[in-house]
Write a structure and sequence with these properties.
1 helix, elongated, 6% helix, mainly beta
Length: 86
């Protein structure tokens, strides 16, 4: 998963892709940096937890393009038109 900096605690946090919005992500829940001093053993999330953020480049929208037809003169190699890998 891509990691994005949290606006509140400035730490690098994993962000999961938001359904229907591939360029956006939601930060995973994480604890604030000052948790032990201020809150003791209580479970407290950072104010930036679950925030929606912009993902880095690989989360960009995929586009479908028309496949080009193969020229009629070329024959596929092998029984199914596959090539040997090794």
């Amino acid at each position: 998963m891509p990691r994005v900096e949290c606006e509140f605690c400035q730490r690098s946090i994993a962000a999961g892709i938001v359904a229907g919005r591939p360029s956006k992500g939601r930060l995973w829940r994480h604890d604030p940096t000052e948790r032990p001093e201020l809150f003791g053993d209580a479970l407290v999330s950072c104010a930036g937890s679950l925030a929606i953020v912009d993902l880095p480049g690989p989360g960009a929208q995929l586009e479908f393009v028309e496949a080009e037809d193969e020229p009629a003169g070329e024959e596929p190699v092998g029984s199914l038109g596959t090539l040997a890998m090794f």
